[in-house]
């Protein structure tokens, strides 16, 4: 999973003011989605189970 972020690691260090020798080992996306989306799967309501 970490390999997805290696291409932006230098940019992340710059934005956060981290030294070059530091490593970014994890990132967590926070915030709200730009658009409202429908559920991915059609689950049964809990009352039907």
Describe this structure in words.
This protein has 1 helix and no strands. The protein is mainly α. The longest helix is centred in the first third of the chain and has 8 residues, at 9-16. The protein is elongated and about 55 Å long.
Biggest β-sheet description: none
Tally of contiguous helical segments = 1
Shape from CA axes? elongated
Low-confidence segments: none
Separation, N- and C-terminal Cα atoms: 34 Å
Beta-strand residue fraction? under 5%
Mean pLDDT: 82
Oligomer: single chain
Q: Give the helices and strands as they follow along the chain.
A: H
Radius of gyration: 18 Å
Give the number of DSSP strands: 0
- The class by helix and strand makeup works out as mainly alpha
What's the helical proportion of residues? Answer: 10-25%
Defining traits:
mainly alpha, 49 residues
What layout of secondary structure does this protein have?
Layout: H1 9-16
Short note summarizing the structure:
The protein is an all-alpha fold. It has one helix spanning 9-16.
């Amino acid at each position: 999973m970490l390999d997805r972020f290696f291409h932006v690691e230098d940019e992340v260090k710059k934005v956060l003011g981290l030294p070059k020798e530091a490593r970014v080992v994890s990132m967590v996306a926070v915030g709200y989605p730009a658009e409202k989306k429908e559920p991915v799967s059609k689950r049964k309501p809990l009352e039907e189970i």
